[in-house]
Amino acid sequence: MRVRDLLARKLINAFQLNLWGEDGQQFAPLGDAEGALIVVDKHRPWFPDGRAPSLFDTRVIIEGKDSVSILLQDDLYEIKST
Q: How far apart are CA 69 and CA 82, in angstroms?
């Protein structure tokens, strides 16, 4: 199943983001030239050095028309718009 079909689709719908570039089974860039979120499959090696992705406590604020907040990965990630 493609990354876009899961988490990326949820973010696209909640924050009116665009899929930027190509979507794939393990990689989905969201946003535009002024700002982007990169959603990757947890098993995809990171480019260019092949390291495994890691989870880090992350808070992201997006400028938007609506006030939306999403908590992901047992509240490890918070993405909200103001």
A: 9
What is the total count of domains within the chain?
A: 1
CA gap 27, 42 in Å, rounded? 10
Q: Which amino acid is at 6?
A: L
Q: Report, in angstroms and rounded to the nearest whole number, the Rg of the chain calculated over CA atoms.
A: 13
Domain that holds residue 12: 3-81
What is the C-alpha to C-alpha distance for residues 41 and 26, in angstroms, rounded to an integer? Answer: 5
**Residue 23: predicted pLDDT:** 58
Sheet arrangement for strand 58-62 = 58-62, 77-81, 69-72
Within the chain, where are the H helices?
7-15
Q: What is the pLDDT of residues 57-68, one digit of tens each?
A: 999 999 888 899
